[in-house]
Amino acid sequence: MLTASGLWFYVVKGGPVMIPILALSVVALTIVLAKVWELWRFRSRLDKLTRKLHLFMQEGNLSAAMHLCREDTTPLHRLFESALVHRGQERADLTRRLERAGGDVVADLESYMPALATVIGVEPMLGFLGTIVGLIKAFMAWERMGEQITINMLAGGIYEAMITTAAGLIVAIPYYLIYNHFVSRIGVLARQTEERTEEFVDVLTVTNFREPARHAL
Question: DSSP label at 147?
Fold first, then answer.
């Protein structure tokens, strides 16, 4: 089992390139934790919002529905608010308007994903860079020492150079799998949002509200 001291040994042996590799791994971990929380919160918010809106639709309470959508300024709340505000438009026009608002929801879901993708792409390249630099140093030492260099000395220099490649891949591979999971999850949430919006519009078109529209707005 790799101990903390053993891990630190490899970090030191990897050279200066290990610093950005480790720094970016911390950045990626921060993004992943934030994204897990964000996606969970979005799903919870979607369920809660649509459930309450359907209750208000059953009651014909437009003011309460509008107030609920305006409690928060997230793209999700603005999406359903837009449906309420423009409920009198033709279905095709309303659909186009909601598609634009839905684009904001998807963009919000995809926040930080480009940064995570950048880290995943850069990590292996940093590893290869560290390996190339290490190999250059090893062969420069061979050139200086000439016949005095031993196989053990040369092998030691080469294995040290390979540490950064291993480190870059060790960081990139798990985050690549997590990234793909996030992409899949975002796609599912986007489809669920679209379905919930369509269901809401269907209910909205047949709802008889108790108060005039001007009072709700």
Answer: G
Helix, strand or coil, per DSSP, at residue 217: coil
Burial of residue 80, with CB atoms counted within 10 A of its CB: 0-12 exposed, 13-18 middle, 19 or more buried = buried
Which pLDDT tens digit goes with each residue over 165-206? 999 999 999 999 999 999 999 999 999 999 999 999 888 887
pLDDT computed for residue 213 by the predictor:
47
| The amino acid at 88 | G
**Lookup: tokens for 125:** 């390249």
Please answer whether residues 28 and 178 qualify as being in contact, where contact means their C-beta atoms are separated by less than 8 angstroms: no
Residue with tokens 């959508």: 69
Nearest of 109, 75, 112, 73 to residue 188 by alpha carbon: 109
Q: How far apart are the C-alpha atoms of 172 and 188, rounded to whole Å?
A: 24
> Which pLDDT band, with edges at 50, 70 and 90, does 135 fall under?
confident
CB-hemisphere CA count at 13 Å for 132? 6
Token couple for 113? 């994903």
| pTM for this predicted structure | 0.84
Contacts of 183 (CB under 8 A, 6+ apart): 113
- Show Cβ contacts of residue 116 under 8 Å, excluding neighbours closer than 6 positions: 28, 31, 32, 35, 175, 179, 182
Q: What is the DSSP letter of 208?
A: -
